[in-house]
Design a protein that fits this description.
alpha+beta, seven-stranded mixed beta sheet, globular
C-alpha cells in the first residue's frame, strides 16, 4: 500500500524572502474557514488589497519555488472579489484539486493554532518570542523552547475474511461508520497503541499488523497514522464511553462512509480495491 508523497518539494523555512519574484500562496483563515480563489488557494503578490484584519501571519516556506504564508484574520471583510469565498476546511478539500496544497492547508492551520496558544510561557507565564534559528518560540524570561505540538492518532482497519470492522462515534454525522481511532499515550509505541485501542474499544485481539500511511489533520494539530490488521479472536464488546456501535460489515455491503478527505476513507477504498483484484 503506497504512501502519499508531495509531487513538488515543500521546504519549510522561518525567514520570509526579502522580495517576491512571483506571487505567493496565501492560506487565509477566519476561524475554521479558509479563503479560496476559484476553488484553490489564493496566489497573490500582495494581500493588502483585500483589506483584511490580520491578527497573525506566519511564513511557512516554499512550495516548489513559491513562498507560502499562513494568515489568521479577526473578522471577515465586508466585501470580497466575486471569485473569492470562505469555505470550511472540511469542504475545502473537495474543492481544491491539488492534494499537495491541502496538506499545506493542514500545516498552516496547525501553525496558526500553535502561535495563538503559545503567546505566553507555560512554565513561568512570561511573553514568548519567535526563535530566529528554528520553528520554535523562546520564553523571554526562562529561555524555555516551545515547539509546535503534534498529537498522533492511530487508525485501525481490521479485516476478517470478507468483512471489515466499522464503528460509530457519537459525534459522527447520522449513519456514518468508520474505522477505529485512538490517541497515543506517553511512552507508548505506535503498534501498542493500535492493539490497546482495539482491545479497549471493541474487546478484540488482532494480528498481522502493518503500517498503511499518514495524514496531517488540523482538528487540532493531529497526525493520523493508519494501520491495517487481521482479526485474531474475541467477540465485539463496545466501550460506550468511546463509541456507540461497532459491527462487522461485508465488503460488498458497507454503510455510509466518511468523505474521501479523510485517511480512514482512503484506507477503506484502497483495501476494497486490493480485494477486488
Amino acid at each position: 500500500m503506497d504512501c502519499i508523497i508531495m509531487s513538488k518539494p515543500f521546504i519549510p523555512q522561518i525567514h520570509p524572502p526579502t522580495s517576491f519574484v512571483e506571487p505567493a500562496f496565501w492560506f487565509i483563515f477566519h476561524g475554521e474557514n479558509i479563503l479560496l480563489q476559484n476553488h484553490t488557494i489564493p496566489h497573490l503578490f500582495d494581500i493588502n488589497a483585500l483589506d483584511l484584519s490580520i491578527e497573525r501571519q506566519i511564513y511557512l516556506g516554499t512550495y516548489g519555488k513559491t513562498p507560502c504564508f499562513a494568515v489568521q484574520i479577526g473578522q471577515q471583510p465586508p466585501a470580497l472579489p466575486e471569485y473569492m469565498a470562505f469555505q470550511h476546511i472540511r469542504q475545502a478539500h473537495e474543492l481544491i484539486s491539488d492534494e499537495d496544497l491541502f496538506l499545506l492547508v493542514s500545516k498552516a492551520k496547525q501553525l496558526l493554532h500553535w502561535d495563538s496558544s503559545t503567546q505566553y510561557c507555560g512554565y513561568c507565564g512570561h511573553k514568548t518570542k519567535y526563535s530566529d534559528k528554528e520553528r520554535a518560540k523562546v520564553c523571554s524570561n526562562c529561555n524555555s523552547l516551545i515547539f509546535p505540538q503534534i498529537a498522533p492518532v492511530m487508525l485501525a482497519l481490521i479485516w476478517r475474511d470478507d468483512e471489515i470492522l466499522l464503528a460509530r462515534s457519537p459525534h459522527f454525522m447520522p449513519g456514518i461508520y468508520s474505522i477505529l481511532a485512538g490517541f497515543v499515550e506517553p511512552g507508548e509505541m505506535l503498534e501498542h497503541t493500535v492493539v490497546r485501542e482495539v482491545q479497549e474499544e471493541v474487546g478484540l485481539t488482532i494480528k498481522n499488523l502493518h503500517y498503511f500511511s499518514s495524514q496531517p489533520w488540523p482538528f487540532q494539530s493531529n497526525l493520523m497514522l493508519g494501520f491495517v490488521a487481521e482479526y485474531e479472536s474475541g467477540e465485539i464488546q463496545i466501550d460506550t464511553r468511546e463509541i456507540e456501535d461497532a459491527q462487522w460489515f461485508s465488503i460488498k455491503k458497507l454503510p455510509q462512509l466518511p468523505k474521501p478527505i479523510s485517511l480512514s476513507r482512503q484506507m477503506i477504498d484502497k483495501y476494497l480495491a486490493m480485494r477486488s483484484k
